[in-house]
Amino acid sequence: MDERTGPWVWPEDPKLTNASERDVWNRLTDQLPDGAYLLGNLRLSDRNKNHEIDALVLIPGLGAVALEIKGGGVSWDPQRGWSITRDDGVKAIDPVGQARASMYALRNKIEHDPRWGSRDRIRWAHGVVTPFTEFGPEFELAELPRWMLHDRLDQPMLVERLHQQLTMTEHAGTAPADADALAVVAEILTQPRGMAHDVLARSEERAAIADQLTMEQAVLLGATRLLRRVEVRGGAGSGKTVLALQQAKELSRGGGGRSKERVALLCYSIGLAEHLKRVVAGWSWKERPAFVGTFHEFGLQWGAATGTRQDSDFWENQLPAEMAWLAAALPHSGTYDSIIVDEAQDFADSWWTPVLGALRDEEASGLYVYSDENQRLFARYGEPPVPLVPLVLDHNLRNTRQILDAFAPLAPSRMRPRGSDGPRVRFVKASLEGAVSAADDQIEQLLEEEGWPQEHVCLLTTGKRHPVQVERAGDGDQEAYWRTFWDTDDVFYGHVLGCKGLERRVVVLCVNDDGSRERATERLYVGMSRATDLLVIVGDPEIIRAVGGNEVATRLGIG
Asked: How confident is the model over 221-238, as pLDDT tens digits?
């Protein structure tokens, strides 16, 4: 547990149903020392009944006290026993029985949890607190000695009385509750076994909602049915890649009065191409496009030369020129009725010549382009040399509202949130030199303390590549490296340059460059928008402000 001033409190914002519970909770929070624990809203069931514990106090060196809190109007008399008077009349209650049964249920739960192991039993006690009712120093029942009842006059010394209660109670065969034992009690009660799946519950729901919203948006494709040259523009999280895939499927299978088409689905980055291939592999053969892959793979199928990735002139100039010549010589059977390009802002002017050359009909064949100008990260500027009908997507479907709010000032246009609510975006202050180490610490916290499965967590850098990425991609096999993005047994380490069109539920964005590189703002935008559920940004506050602007800094809580 984290070291902090005062008790460790759970939950941070408890659901306190009445003034008596709020009064006692605040008093315990103020009076309990460092190392103590205060837990509320505890509910559990055993074979006999359901239990609800108003407050559980764990005191270092002593033990645990389960408290039943009763408000004004509570009383006891020999005839009726315990009762409480409310607006709707007098109701019989049993606060002592409730507290006692809850204590034993809690003790049984703790001692039968595997995490408790072979530890000795700690001291357990129960008590009743009546913050607004006075019973006097002489009141005492066989089932409730006066030192187990804490009435209105006892409140200023409440924690002191709990100390005395744990000291006075007979606890044969028990051990003092050391810090380790109390931490395990708190862990068992606040982090049930299988917590990793609990962490994913809301994430799974958000993903299902986003998928549904994206498929609803797919009706927009009907508007393009009679259009053969279209550019779909949209910011991060607007569902462009899902729409590009859906369009490739619909054109390939025909139907609805349309002929089946020979379709190519292209992109620039290897990681996105691998994602497209994996999705398409799950379709029936009638729905699959004739080609799915990168622009460079598009030319390799025609016999274009290969080259090393270090030879930028080959990839940017020589290969596109060779591909244009090969495309012009394609037989009719090798051309395409429609070509779909995802993340088209990555394409240079020279690349469009072979793309258009591979179309069957220069005028009638389909060209569908999906782009986001604010994700233009490379030093190449190109656009299709043919007129396209623009279609704008202004709804964000994939990110939580909190994540969208953080990167919205960087988006190409105002985006309307359609995603679900999620956890707040976290900003972790770190120096430029210490950013990678601080990001690694955040990964450890997400896995070890918060229970996120590794397969849903990603660390992205904006500057130098993380050492783990360098190691995994060391032999130069980029295809093999990008296949690890879908591994389920480890965190993925990548760079913002290669992750456009891809997403992870949890992203730790390590801002490890000083912001002086070209298109640093676009890098920040891409990195922030890769997380669908939880975004953690690690970096120097002044660099974040310089790159993202004052509004982004303010939304991240940077003063």
From this structure: 776 777 899 999 888 888
